[in-house]
Design brief:
By secondary structure, this protein is of the alpha/beta class. The protein has 2 domains: 31-114, Rossmann fold, CATH 3.40.50.10860; 140-263, NAD(P)-binding Rossmann-like Domain (Rossmann fold), CATH 3.40.50. The protein is 41% helix and 15% strand. The protein contains 10 helices and 11 strands. It has a 6-stranded parallel beta sheet. α2 (44-60) links the parallel β2 (34-40) and β3 (63-69). The protein is globular, with a radius of gyration of 19 Å. The mean pLDDT is 95.
Length: 284
Protein backbone atom coordinates (compact mmCIF):
# COMPACT_ATOMS: atom_id res chain seq x y z
CA UNK A 1 0.00 0.00 0.00
CA UNK A 2 1.23 3.48 -0.82
CA UNK A 3 -0.61 6.53 0.43
CA UNK A 4 -2.04 9.13 -1.89
CA UNK A 5 -0.36 12.49 -1.38
CA UNK A 6 -2.53 15.50 -0.59
CA UNK A 7 -0.56 18.24 -2.31
CA UNK A 8 -0.99 21.62 -0.68
CA UNK A 9 1.01 23.13 -3.51
CA UNK A 10 -1.46 21.97 -6.17
CA UNK A 11 -4.56 22.72 -4.11
CA UNK A 12 -3.21 26.20 -3.37
CA UNK A 13 -2.83 26.91 -7.08
CA UNK A 14 -6.48 26.05 -7.64
CA UNK A 15 -7.75 28.16 -4.73
CA UNK A 16 -5.51 31.12 -5.60
CA UNK A 17 -6.78 31.03 -9.18
CA UNK A 18 -10.32 31.35 -7.82
CA UNK A 19 -9.23 34.18 -5.51
CA UNK A 20 -7.63 36.00 -8.43
CA UNK A 21 -10.86 35.83 -10.42
CA UNK A 22 -12.87 37.18 -7.49
CA UNK A 23 -10.35 39.99 -7.04
CA UNK A 24 -10.86 40.97 -10.69
CA UNK A 25 -14.63 41.12 -10.10
CA UNK A 26 -14.16 43.37 -7.07
CA UNK A 27 -11.61 45.53 -8.87
CA UNK A 28 -14.16 46.15 -11.60
CA UNK A 29 -16.28 47.74 -8.87
CA UNK A 30 -13.38 49.89 -7.68
CA UNK A 31 -12.51 47.67 -4.71
CA UNK A 32 -9.02 46.26 -4.16
CA UNK A 33 -8.60 43.89 -1.18
CA UNK A 34 -5.91 45.27 1.13
CA UNK A 35 -3.73 43.43 3.65
CA UNK A 36 -1.40 45.09 6.14
CA UNK A 37 1.38 42.90 7.51
CA UNK A 38 3.14 44.05 10.67
CA UNK A 39 6.53 42.65 11.63
CA UNK A 40 8.50 43.69 14.70
CA UNK A 41 12.22 43.03 15.01
CA UNK A 42 14.51 41.06 12.72
CA UNK A 43 13.64 37.41 13.41
CA UNK A 44 14.90 35.62 10.25
CA UNK A 45 12.00 33.15 10.11
CA UNK A 46 9.48 35.95 10.49
CA UNK A 47 11.14 37.89 7.68
CA UNK A 48 10.78 34.90 5.34
CA UNK A 49 7.12 34.34 6.25
CA UNK A 50 6.33 38.00 5.78
CA UNK A 51 8.00 38.18 2.36
CA UNK A 52 6.05 35.14 1.23
CA UNK A 53 2.77 36.67 2.38
CA UNK A 54 3.41 39.99 0.66
CA UNK A 55 4.46 38.20 -2.53
CA UNK A 56 1.29 36.08 -2.48
CA UNK A 57 -0.82 39.23 -2.12
CA UNK A 58 0.80 40.79 -5.17
CA UNK A 59 0.29 37.64 -7.23
CA UNK A 60 -3.51 37.61 -6.73
CA UNK A 61 -3.95 41.37 -7.18
CA UNK A 62 -4.24 42.56 -3.58
CA UNK A 63 -2.97 45.84 -2.23
CA UNK A 64 -0.49 45.05 0.54
CA UNK A 65 1.59 47.05 2.96
CA UNK A 66 4.55 45.81 4.97
CA UNK A 67 4.92 47.73 8.21
CA UNK A 68 8.30 46.85 9.72
CA UNK A 69 9.21 48.19 13.17
CA UNK A 70 12.33 47.81 15.29
CA UNK A 71 12.29 45.38 18.21
CA UNK A 72 12.56 48.39 20.52
CA UNK A 73 9.12 49.77 19.58
CA UNK A 74 6.92 50.28 22.62
CA UNK A 75 3.67 48.37 23.03
CA UNK A 76 1.81 51.70 23.14
CA UNK A 77 3.24 52.81 19.80
CA UNK A 78 2.50 49.44 18.18
CA UNK A 79 -1.10 49.60 19.40
CA UNK A 80 -1.33 53.10 17.95
CA UNK A 81 -0.25 51.84 14.53
CA UNK A 82 -2.87 49.09 14.68
CA UNK A 83 -5.60 51.60 15.54
CA UNK A 84 -4.60 53.64 12.49
CA UNK A 85 -4.89 50.54 10.30
CA UNK A 86 -8.29 49.76 11.83
CA UNK A 87 -9.51 53.13 10.52
CA UNK A 88 -7.86 52.84 7.10
CA UNK A 89 -10.55 51.97 4.50
CA UNK A 90 -7.91 50.64 2.08
CA UNK A 91 -6.97 47.93 4.58
CA UNK A 92 -9.37 45.00 4.92
CA UNK A 93 -7.07 42.63 6.78
CA UNK A 94 -4.42 43.11 9.47
CA UNK A 95 -1.83 40.49 10.32
CA UNK A 96 0.73 40.78 13.11
CA UNK A 97 3.60 38.37 12.58
CA UNK A 98 4.36 36.40 15.75
CA UNK A 99 6.37 36.08 17.89
CA UNK A 100 6.67 39.61 19.25
CA UNK A 101 9.45 40.88 21.55
CA UNK A 102 9.07 39.92 25.21
CA UNK A 103 8.14 43.42 26.35
CA UNK A 104 5.01 43.41 24.16
CA UNK A 105 1.87 41.54 25.22
CA UNK A 106 0.89 39.53 22.13
CA UNK A 107 -2.66 38.97 23.37
CA UNK A 108 -3.22 42.69 23.88
CA UNK A 109 -1.92 43.40 20.39
CA UNK A 110 -4.14 40.77 18.75
CA UNK A 111 -7.19 41.99 20.64
CA UNK A 112 -6.52 45.54 19.38
CA UNK A 113 -7.23 44.45 15.80
CA UNK A 114 -10.73 45.24 14.56
CA UNK A 115 -12.46 41.80 14.47
CA UNK A 116 -13.72 42.57 10.96
CA UNK A 117 -10.06 42.76 9.87
CA UNK A 118 -8.80 39.79 11.90
CA UNK A 119 -7.82 37.68 8.89
CA UNK A 120 -5.48 35.52 10.99
CA UNK A 121 -8.50 34.39 13.02
CA UNK A 122 -6.78 34.88 16.39
CA UNK A 123 -9.04 37.54 17.95
CA UNK A 124 -11.26 36.44 20.84
CA UNK A 125 -14.29 37.31 18.71
CA UNK A 126 -13.10 34.97 15.97
CA UNK A 127 -12.44 32.22 18.49
CA UNK A 128 -15.88 32.71 19.98
CA UNK A 129 -17.53 32.55 16.58
CA UNK A 130 -15.74 29.28 15.87
CA UNK A 131 -16.89 27.77 19.17
CA UNK A 132 -20.48 28.85 18.53
CA UNK A 133 -20.48 27.79 14.88
CA UNK A 134 -21.11 31.34 13.70
CA UNK A 135 -19.65 33.08 10.62
CA UNK A 136 -16.18 34.47 11.20
CA UNK A 137 -12.54 34.13 10.24
CA UNK A 138 -11.00 30.71 10.85
CA UNK A 139 -7.29 30.47 11.74
CA UNK A 140 -5.47 29.91 8.47
CA UNK A 141 -3.52 26.71 9.17
CA UNK A 142 -6.41 24.54 10.43
CA UNK A 143 -8.65 26.14 7.79
CA UNK A 144 -6.16 24.94 5.19
CA UNK A 145 -6.19 21.44 6.72
CA UNK A 146 -9.96 21.33 6.38
CA UNK A 147 -9.69 22.35 2.73
CA UNK A 148 -7.23 19.51 2.17
CA UNK A 149 -9.66 16.98 3.62
CA UNK A 150 -12.40 18.49 1.50
CA UNK A 151 -10.21 18.14 -1.61
CA UNK A 152 -10.19 14.33 -1.25
CA UNK A 153 -13.95 14.27 -0.62
CA UNK A 154 -13.41 12.90 2.85
CA UNK A 155 -16.67 12.68 4.80
CA UNK A 156 -15.84 13.35 8.47
CA UNK A 157 -19.31 12.46 9.75
CA UNK A 158 -18.98 9.73 12.36
CA UNK A 159 -15.20 9.43 11.89
CA UNK A 160 -12.80 9.38 14.82
CA UNK A 161 -10.32 12.23 14.56
CA UNK A 162 -7.27 12.72 16.76
CA UNK A 163 -5.46 16.05 16.99
CA UNK A 164 -1.96 15.94 18.48
CA UNK A 165 -1.21 19.42 19.80
CA UNK A 166 -3.33 21.92 21.71
CA UNK A 167 -2.10 25.36 20.62
CA UNK A 168 -4.51 28.24 20.14
CA UNK A 169 -3.17 28.63 16.59
CA UNK A 170 -3.67 25.07 15.33
CA UNK A 171 -4.66 22.33 17.78
CA UNK A 172 -7.71 23.78 19.50
CA UNK A 173 -9.31 25.42 16.44
CA UNK A 174 -8.54 22.27 14.40
CA UNK A 175 -10.49 20.17 16.87
CA UNK A 176 -13.46 22.54 16.72
CA UNK A 177 -13.49 22.53 12.91
CA UNK A 178 -13.45 18.73 12.84
CA UNK A 179 -16.23 18.65 15.43
CA UNK A 180 -18.25 21.06 13.29
CA UNK A 181 -18.15 18.42 10.52
CA UNK A 182 -19.54 15.79 12.91
CA UNK A 183 -16.31 13.94 13.66
CA UNK A 184 -15.69 12.55 17.14
CA UNK A 185 -12.56 14.35 18.30
CA UNK A 186 -9.81 13.69 20.83
CA UNK A 187 -7.05 16.21 21.54
CA UNK A 188 -3.72 14.74 22.67
CA UNK A 189 -0.76 16.65 24.10
CA UNK A 190 2.43 16.37 26.14
CA UNK A 191 0.58 15.05 29.20
CA UNK A 192 -1.41 12.40 27.28
CA UNK A 193 -0.89 8.90 28.63
CA UNK A 194 -0.36 6.11 26.04
CA UNK A 195 -0.69 8.17 22.87
CA UNK A 196 -0.33 5.07 20.70
CA UNK A 197 -3.46 3.45 22.15
CA UNK A 198 -5.45 6.52 21.10
CA UNK A 199 -3.96 7.03 17.64
CA UNK A 200 -4.46 3.35 16.73
CA UNK A 201 -8.23 3.93 16.79
CA UNK A 202 -8.17 7.11 14.66
CA UNK A 203 -9.53 7.50 11.13
CA UNK A 204 -7.92 10.94 10.78
CA UNK A 205 -4.87 12.27 12.61
CA UNK A 206 -3.66 15.88 12.56
CA UNK A 207 -0.20 16.39 14.06
CA UNK A 208 0.92 19.88 15.09
CA UNK A 209 3.55 19.89 17.83
CA UNK A 210 6.80 20.97 16.17
CA UNK A 211 8.71 17.78 16.98
CA UNK A 212 9.97 15.09 14.61
CA UNK A 213 8.54 11.56 14.48
CA UNK A 214 5.75 12.14 16.98
CA UNK A 215 3.66 9.75 14.89
CA UNK A 216 5.12 6.55 13.42
CA UNK A 217 3.72 3.68 11.33
CA UNK A 218 3.21 1.36 14.30
CA UNK A 219 0.90 3.96 15.91
CA UNK A 220 -1.80 3.96 13.22
CA UNK A 221 -4.28 1.58 11.62
CA UNK A 222 -4.24 0.87 7.87
CA UNK A 223 -6.08 3.44 5.77
CA UNK A 224 -5.70 6.34 8.19
CA UNK A 225 -5.58 9.91 6.82
CA UNK A 226 -2.60 11.88 8.17
CA UNK A 227 -2.29 15.67 8.10
CA UNK A 228 1.20 16.81 9.09
CA UNK A 229 1.35 20.45 10.19
CA UNK A 230 4.91 20.28 11.51
CA UNK A 231 7.95 22.01 10.03
CA UNK A 232 11.32 20.79 11.29
CA UNK A 233 14.77 19.90 9.95
CA UNK A 234 16.37 16.49 10.15
CA UNK A 235 19.99 15.71 10.96
CA UNK A 236 20.96 16.60 7.38
CA UNK A 237 19.19 19.96 7.47
CA UNK A 238 16.37 18.73 5.23
CA UNK A 239 12.85 20.01 5.87
CA UNK A 240 10.55 17.46 7.46
CA UNK A 241 7.34 17.35 9.43
CA UNK A 242 6.16 15.92 12.73
CA UNK A 243 5.51 12.40 11.41
CA UNK A 244 7.60 9.56 10.03
CA UNK A 245 6.56 10.20 6.44
CA UNK A 246 8.36 7.25 4.83
CA UNK A 247 6.93 4.77 7.33
CA UNK A 248 3.41 6.18 7.34
CA UNK A 249 2.99 6.42 3.58
CA UNK A 250 3.10 2.62 3.49
CA UNK A 251 0.13 2.40 5.88
CA UNK A 252 -2.00 5.51 5.39
CA UNK A 253 -4.57 6.02 2.63
CA UNK A 254 -3.72 9.74 2.34
CA UNK A 255 -0.91 11.84 3.78
CA UNK A 256 0.38 15.39 3.40
CA UNK A 257 4.05 15.90 2.46
CA UNK A 258 6.51 18.33 4.06
CA UNK A 259 7.34 20.58 2.34
CA UNK A 260 4.50 21.12 -0.11
CA UNK A 261 1.64 20.13 2.17
CA UNK A 262 -0.02 22.29 4.80
CA UNK A 263 2.50 25.14 4.46
CA UNK A 264 1.28 26.56 1.14
CA UNK A 265 -2.31 26.26 2.34
CA UNK A 266 -1.75 28.54 5.33
CA UNK A 267 -0.90 31.56 3.17
CA UNK A 268 -3.64 30.65 0.69
CA UNK A 269 -6.30 30.70 3.41
CA UNK A 270 -4.95 34.06 4.57
CA UNK A 271 -5.68 35.33 1.07
CA UNK A 272 -9.14 33.76 1.21
CA UNK A 273 -9.89 35.42 4.56
CA UNK A 274 -8.67 38.82 3.33
CA UNK A 275 -10.79 38.57 0.20
CA UNK A 276 -13.81 37.67 2.34
CA UNK A 277 -13.10 40.65 4.60
CA UNK A 278 -13.08 42.97 1.59
CA UNK A 279 -16.28 41.41 0.32
CA UNK A 280 -17.91 41.87 3.74
CA UNK A 281 -17.01 45.55 3.67
CA UNK A 282 -18.54 45.98 0.24
CA UNK A 283 -21.39 43.44 -0.01
CA UNK A 284 -23.02 42.95 -3.39
Amino acid sequence: MSANLISGTELSKSIRASVTERVKELSAKGITPGLAVIVVGDNPASQVYVRNKVKACEEVGFFSSLDAYPASISEKDLLGHIQALNKNPKIHGILVQLPLPDHIDSSRVIEAIDPSKDVDGFHISSAGALVKGLPGFWPCTPFGCMKMLESINYDLKGKYAVVIGRSHIVGKPMALMLLDKNATVTICHSATVNLKAITLTADVIVVAVGKRNVLTADMVKPGVVVIDVGMNRDENGKLCGDVDFEGLKAVASHITPVPGGVGPMTITMLLQNTLDAAQNTHPA
